[in-house]
Structure formats: structure tokens, C-alpha cells
Amino acid sequence: MTTQYEQYDPARHGRDTPQSVFGPVVKVDRHEGGKIHVITLNRPHRLNAIGDGLSEALYDAFADFRDDPDARVAILTGAGRAFCAGADLINTAESRTAERASGGAQPRRPAGPRKNPVPLSEGMGLWKPTIAAVNGFAIAGGFMYAMQCDIRIMAEEARVGIAEARWNMGGAGWMIPLSRQIGLGSALELTLWGDTQYTAERCYQLGWAQRVVPRERLMETAMEYGQRALDMAPRAVRNMKQALYRGFYMEPLVAQAFGGAIEQNLAGMNDSLEGPRAFSEKRRPRFTDT
Fold first, then answer.
1. Does a structural domain hold residue 287?
2. CA dihedral sign of residues 158, 163, 169, 173
3. 203 and 250 share a domain?
4. 144 touches 84 (CB < 8 A)
5. Which residue among 81, 93, 129, 238 has the highest number of C-beta atoms inside a 10 angstrom radius?
6. Rounded to the nearest 5°, which phi and psi values hold at 279?
7. Residue predicted with more confidence, 218 or 112
8. 200-218: string of b/e by CB count within 10 Å (b at 16+)?
9. 135 CB burial (10 A radius; 0-12, 13-18, 19+)
10. Alpha-carbon gap, residue 75 to 81, rounded angstroms
11. SS3 of 141, please?
């Protein structure tokens, strides 16, 4: 059964729900009894550009996924013909023009830390698997969102790019992990030459995309990955993801010790009995994360 909800429920967040004139800026459909969350960026009239509270709503969608004990895997995609076109530069230009006209006064931010879904795994402590289903252009901030996911499936006509250098926009912080994903030379080409765009096939050649499929098969393929994930032991998956992300920056012996320490949480689990039992009985395991 599929259900939907809108982000920033005022009862939970104490503020109005971010809306565009076309409805909620982020939508979530739940599949397989809530085990698979399909998170959709929903500003198609602006190519899903980041505005109208979209970033904060996306943070809430991922936080709800992280904290839901039934949720196992998330798929991020975009409504309409684009994945995400990055920052809404029209809104940005308007706000900066207004700021200059008012003498340079900075608009006041709400009290407390800003909700930001980047970095997704390390920053939010999200160690469940995530999939980006890149249905069209993923430019600048849209590329940033896709690179946060664990694997990327791209439609054949999808394109990616990082245009910040063209428009004097910031972004150096979120770009830092890019060299480990596609290599230093390609990372420099994308960032320093902001008019560079890579095709889905080029992304696949670089290893940034794990699959390239016709657009009509994009969500089908992403759901196949999601359903396969449901057969995996959830705590083992979280352990391995955390070890791979955090261990990348560690000295090898420190990383090995870190990974070994994490896996102590498998001891005594019912799932640690269920896995070998299912193998010996030649059936699918029924993991309960206990």
C-alpha cells in the first residue's frame, strides 16, 4: 500500500508547511508496508530547483526515513522532466537585489541550527541504503543531492553538471567528496569549467552511476534495487555502510579496528541465527532487525 504525506507538519515542526503553488515541495510514497520510501522533489514548474523550503523539507523526509523502524531503503527522484536544477537563481537574484537595496542587511534566519540534508550519511547519521533515481537534469545542487545517495540509477537522457563557477555561487564545501567518487581530474573539469555536462553514459563509465536505463524503466529498476535490499540483514547493512563511509578517511589499521568494533552489535541478535538457518533451509531469510 502506498501512502503520502507532506513535510513540515506544523504539529511536529511549529511552522507552516512549505508549499509551492503546485502543492508540497517534497512528497513521500511508502511501499512494501512502509519499508521503501520514495522521496520525490516536487517543484516541476521550476525543474525542482531548491526553493520554497525544499531543502528543509527534504531534510525532514530523510529524518523520518532514518527514524522509522520499519523503513529499510529510500529512493530519491524528481517530479517532471528534471531531477533537480540546483538553487532557484531567480529567487536568489531577487533576494540579493532586495538585500542590496536595503543597505546590505542580512535577512534573519530562524533560531537554531539550519536543517540541511548534506552530508546525508555522516551529517544525519543515516546508515540505511539510499538510491538516487536521476530522471533528468541534475545540476549544481541537484548533483549535490544525487551524490549524497549510495548508488545512482540514471535515465539515458539525464545530464549532470556543477554550474557554480558560471554564476559566482558557493558550493566548495559539498564538492569536497566528489574527487573520491569520480577522480580528481573529472571533479576539476566539472567544477572549474561550470559549462561542463556529463551524459548518463559518461557517469556510468566513471563509476558514478551504477545503472543507465531507458526513462520508462527508471523507477522500475530503482524499485528492483529497493526490493532486493529488503532481503538483506538491516543491521549488517548499516554496519557496512558506516564502515565504508567513515573508514575511507582512516589509516588502514584504524579502519579495520573500527569496522570490527561496529560489528560487535551483531552478537546475540535473532537475525544472526536467522541468516545461517535460512541458508541451510534454502529459503529467503526473514530478518526482523532484532
1. no
2. positive
3. no
4. no
5. 129
6. -60, -45
7. 218
8. bebbbeeebbbbbbeeeeb
9. buried
10. 17
11. helix
Which residues does 218 contact at the CB level (< 8 Å), separation at least 6?
77, 133, 134, 135, 153, 154, 155
Q: Give the pLDDT of residue 90.
A: 63
Q: Is 138 a member of any domain? A: yes
Is 270 found in the same domain as 188?
no
Residue found by looking up cell 537585489 in the block: 97
Do 271 and 194 lie in one domain? The reply is no
Residue 163 contacts residue 221 (beta carbons within 8 Å): no
- Tell me, what DSSP letter sits at residue 134? E
Is residue 153 very low, low, confident or very high in pLDDT (cuts 50, 70, 90)? Answer: very high
Print the domain residue range for 63.
4-229
27 touches 43 (CB < 8 A) = no
What the block records as the C-alpha cell of 227 is 526490493
Please state, in angstroms and rounded to a whole number, the distance separating the CA atoms of residues 286 and 224.
18
pTM recorded for the entire structure: 0.87
Residue range 161-210, pLDDT digits in tens = 999 999 898 899 999 999 999 999 999 999 999 999 999 999 999 999 99
Give the number of other Cβ atoms within 10 Å of residue 259's Cβ: 17
Predicted pLDDT at 88:
86
Domain boundary residue, one of 210, 229, 248: 229
Number of domains in the chain: 2
Q: Which residues pair with 19 in a beta bridge?
A: 24
Other C-beta atoms lying within 10 Å of the C-beta of residue 53:
22
**What is the SS3 string spanning 181-212?**
HHCHHHHHHHHHCCCCCEEHHHHHHHCCCCEE
155 shares a domain with 251: no
Residue 286, domain member (yes or no): no
